[in-house]
Design a protein that fits this description.
9 helices, Jelly Rolls
Length: about 240
């Protein structure tokens, strides 16, 4: 089982020694997914669970006229399709943002682990609860925060999530997200996103250059986005 996924579960709930041994015994297949490819599509009924091992992805809804709303970013260690594990059918799609490595868990194994080890079931439950909390925070972000606050909050969230897994440097993180994808995540135009990122840089809070995000003033960025990490629970 991928180490980041096990580490993520352990952050969410204390895992028993038996649970850790069971997870260690699971051997999974890994696949490579190129940039801008669907890992799982809305309407599918997956027969396996997929874990993002390397790279970045996003959850999205595609409207009839072709407009896309990104509803969350998926980082290494996240389950791509936990929703289908419970509901059976995906109500959204997950797409890669760059080249991704995805671990595929055969059908039934995750359910058996959860049934045999309550600590794993608890961790998966908390994973689902946190996904829902992120979704609510994004609704508030797009619906009520200013453009400046939206981007400050989003960058704060991504930094906090990556940092909790040791995936950040001292001053920032690598994040291959285009301004078009930022626009799809924040409900802004690409031009507006570019303008706000420039305002955040001028304010001395954050610098985005290509795929490199440098946090210049963490406390200032958090205040600008009204960011309270408590909804991330384990962060």
């Amino acid at each position: 089982m991928p180490n980041l996924f096990v580490n993520r579960l352990a952050q969410l709930a204390p895992l028993s020694s038996a649970a850790l041994r069971a997870l260690d015994k699971i051997r999974v297949q890994t696949i490579q997914v190129g940039p801008d490819q669907d890992i799982v599509r809305e309407g599918e009924r997956p027969v396996s669970c997929r874990i993002l091992v390397e790279g970045f992805a996003c959850r999205y809804k595609l409207l009839a006229e072709g407009k896309r709303q990104i509803t969350a970013f998926v980082i290494p260690g996240d389950l791509c399709d936990l929703h289908s594990f419970v509901a059976g059918r995906m109500d959204h799609s997950v797409s890669s943002l760059n080249t991704c490595t995805v671990a595929v868990i055969p059908d039934g194994i995750l359910g058996d682990l959860a049934a045999d080890h309550p600590s794993i079931a608890n961790a998966l439950w908390r994973h689902s609860v946190i996904e829902a909390a992120i979704a609510r925070e994004w609704v508030a972000n797009v619906g009520r925060r200013s453009a400046y606050q939206r981007l400050a909050h989003l960058l704060s969230e991504v930094f906090t999530r990556l940092n909790s897994l040791g995936l950040c440097s001292d001053d920032g993180f690598d994040w291959p997200v285009t301004q078009s994808e930022l626009a799809d995540a924040t409900g802004l135009s690409t031009v507006h996103c570019n303008r706000v990122l420039r305002e955040l840089r001028i304010a001395g809070l954050v610098t985005v250059a290509g795929s490199k995000v440098t946090i210049e003033d963490w406390d200032g960025l958090r205040r600008a986005g009204e960011f309270d990490p408590s909804y991330l629970a384990a962060a």
